[in-house]
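Notes from the 1:1 (GR / supervisor)

We went over the backlog. Supervisor wanted to see one worked example end to end before approving the batch request, so GR pasted a single chain during the call. The sequence is below; no edits were made to it. Supervisor asked that the structure be written out right there so they could see what the output format looks like.
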Amino acid sequence: MDSANGPEVALGTSLQPGSLAQVVRRIADEVAGPASGQVDLEARFPEQALTALKSEHLLGALVPSNLGGLGATIRDMATACETLAQRCASTGLIYAMHQIQVHCLIRHSRHNALLRHYLTQLSEQQLLLASATTESGVGGDVRTSLCSVVLEGDTFLLEKSAPVISYGVNADAILVTARRAPDAASGDQVLVLCTRDGTSLKPTATWDTLGFRGSCSEGYQLRARGPAAYVLPDSFALISALTMLPTSHILWTAVWLGIATDAVNRARAYLRAESRKQPGRMPPGALRLAQAVSSLQTMRATLQDALQEYESTMDDPDALSAMGFALRMNNLKIAGARLVVEIVSEAMHVIGIAGYRRDSRYSVERHLRDAYGAGLMISNDRIYGANAAMLLVAKDA
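Structure output shown during the call:
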């Protein structure tokens, strides 16, 4: 994006109060939104939106300023994901998944000089991160791996059959879970940074879905080779508990909130237009709109509570490792995935056939298709199962 079309507020390498939100809103309104219909129709990667985000250094937003990033917070990222998802849910989801991986690298690279240098590269070159945490043969359980890291001197080798790697061919690197060694237990996992120059992806499954079509979540046979220092020093169990689980559920829920917010806004705009046709008469659907807004406010408050708790305990490993915290984060995601479907459904009933149509300015059909992905792409049933297991032993839920 050239300077003539740049934002009114330039970010550079230091984050000014409110500037990130302004730039993200402009990109959402002017780039992601106008392209969203074709992204969905063609099930293609939202290239225009990601190019715009890169041009404003937003892929490195979370990276600390001393490593070349913007030094943004998780709260900033939640707001950004919500804003993008209001205009293009696939763009919001991709940005969320990228920032989840960035946060893991930031918090768990510790004193690994090579990983810290990669974060600087990410900021400078605006590199896009993806993840491969699921594996064929383990039933979707991300805390179990069949594949393993093989070390040969200062080099690692890794091969994984991944049923889903979202935007894999568009990513500059993929963070991959695997067993620590060939003789390690299935739950003794590490997280490995696999960069494009050392990684090959052989397609094994296509992506032609109901919703989130632009996430391009295809399946691949992954083979990777790289420096042994690209194996993160902390165990994946620790990375998951302290960073990946809470960050994922917060940012995913922010995406669901963005979808729901735009659907409610369209329903409100529709009713206002209808009320102007018959002044003094409450239009049909007003009661449903009130119910949808109530649910939306509940969803927003639930996300804000989770954000506040994570922010206040982010540097307390004991608090983050507690079962009660994991249960609350899991329930955030479950509630968000359920509420987004309910809210968008209410919005469609408020709008009626104009919301059902694809060619209407009030259409919420894509919102509804995307909303159903919230409880399926990241399975609510599996999270309920994890909660049930924890509740059997947790002293305080």
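Supervisor's comment: The chain has three domains: 3-125, 129-230, 236-391.
Batch request approved.
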